From TrEMBL:
Name of the protein in its database record: N-acetylmuramoyl-L-alanine amidase
A family per Pfam: Amidase_3
The enzyme's E.C. designation: 3.5.1.28
Domain of life: Bacteria
Residue ranges crossing the lipid bilayer per the database entry: none
Matching SUPFAM superfamilies: Zn-dependent exopeptidases
Principal EC category: hydrolase
Keywords on record: Hydrolase, Signal
GO cellular component term, pick one: outer membrane-bounded periplasmic space
Signal peptide extent: 1-23
Annotated GO MF terms: N-acetylmuramoyl-L-alanine amidase activity
Length: 374
């Protein structure tokens, strides 16, 4: 028995040492750079030393996905090109799993691309099926506009009435009640939660702020005659289990929210988020949709929220966010406001603020349901 214990201890020590060695072997993604040319070509240069193993693929919406194995990234983030009409719309980069970094490049689905290992990193060329080596020259010395990972504002759609509607309000007495025999199902998804804090700025965690608004929203909708299902009612992961077959950890978490809406036959789906931006002065709501059936829902929601909060973009923005792309009913995602704005951050945990936003969202849901289904 003594001999067995010694051998067992030795094996455990070897395994532990191997695991430490493996962790230390992770290559480091040091930075991500973007550069475009006048002929509508662009490159994304992923700076990484060593010989990285990687794979890549393209999604149906045109996004290019690069997975770098056995790697870690110093800091996740995003780059939003200054021109909204270029061949690349956005670049997001983050730690996808403990030993894999993922780079996602938004692009036109028809644009050719090429991914090549070059000295100092990996080159993603967009607009050309061959490497655009000439564009890389001097790229690491250029100033990059790196912003928080989930940054998506479109400044060219900035609402002209940001300040004119700030003092308007929707009172609880003006909220209508549905006169329907059977309550319709509304699925409310407070973004992030549990292991995923979402945006963090000015002492605010997005996951806490979204849940606060959602918990105020639920009873308002129930008084209107809706049946409300929440994807979460506490600070937790919605999935929180081994990955779904064919999905990574992030996708499993998002698909779990989609499944709740689809399997319950929801009439409408709403995902609540708060935004972040490198510019702390930016303030206001954005509403996203993906499917054509969701456009009117998004438009109505903007109009109702604008009565209590400035809007950053006065029209719905089409984006293939997972939870609004794969749900089968009209679905929208609301970026309530920017917690990187200190004045906004000071309010978002306040119950009065959460109630105000919830009242406006509830009215938007009521008005949308009435137009779509009645």
């Amino acid at each position: 028995m003594k001999y067995f214990n010694i051998v067992f201890f030795f094996l455990c020590a070897v395994i532990f040492a191997c695991s430490i060695a493996k962790a230390e072997e992770l290559l480091t993604v040091q930075n991500v750079f973007f550069k475009s040319s006048q002929d509508n070509n662009a490159v994304v240069f992923v700076q990484i030393q060593g010989e990285p193993k990687y794979s890549y693929f393209r999604l149906d919406d045109g996004r290019i996905v690069l997975n770098i194995e056995n790697s870690k990234i110093i800091k996740k983030g995003a780059i939003i090109p200054a021109s909204s009409s270029g061949v690349v719309s956005e670049i997001h980069f983050a730690q996808n799993t403990p030993d894999m970094v993922r780079i996602v490049v938004g692009s036109n689905v028809k644009a050719p691309y090429n991914i090549t290992k070059i000295n100092g990193g990996i080159l993603i060329s967009v607009g050309s099926s061959t490497p655009l080596i000439s564009l890389v020259n001097g790229i690491t010395s250029e100033l990059q506009n790196v912003v928080p990972y989930n940054y998506t504002p479109e400044k060219n759609q900035l609402a002209s009435n940001q300040t004119s509607q700030v003092n308007s309000s929707v009172s609880s007495s003006s909220i209508n009640t549905l006169n329907v025999k059977n309550s319709k199902i509304i699925v409310i998804d407070p973004g992030h939660g549990g292991s995923d804090p979402g945006c963090v700025a000015n002492g605010v965690q997005e996951k806490i702020a979204t849940l606060g608004v959602a918990l105020h929203l639920k009873p308002i909708l129930e008084k209107m005659g809706f049946k409300v299902i929440m994807t979460r009612e506490t600070d937790r992961d919605v999935w929180g289990r081994p990955n779904m077959p064919g999905f990574d950890a992030d996708e499993s978490e998002l698909q779990a929210r989609v499944n709740i809406a689809n399997e319950n036959g929801a009439a409408l789906f709403l995902s609540i988020h708060f935004n972040a931006c490198a510019d702390p002065s930016i303030h206001g709501t954005q509403v996203y949709y993906y499917t054509p059936q969701s456009f009117r829902y998004a438009s109505i929601m903007i109009n109702d929220i604008a009565k209590v909060n400035p809007v950053y973009t006065d029209k719905p923005i089409r984006r293939p966010f997972w939870v609004i792309k794969y749900t089968t009913m009209p679905s929208i995602l609301i970026e309530t406001d920017f917690i990187t704005n200190p004045s906004v951050a000071a309010q978002v945990y306040n119950p009065a603020y959460q109630e105000k936003i919830a009242q406006a969202i509830a009215q938007g849901i009521y008005d949308s349901y009435k137009e779509i289904y009645q």
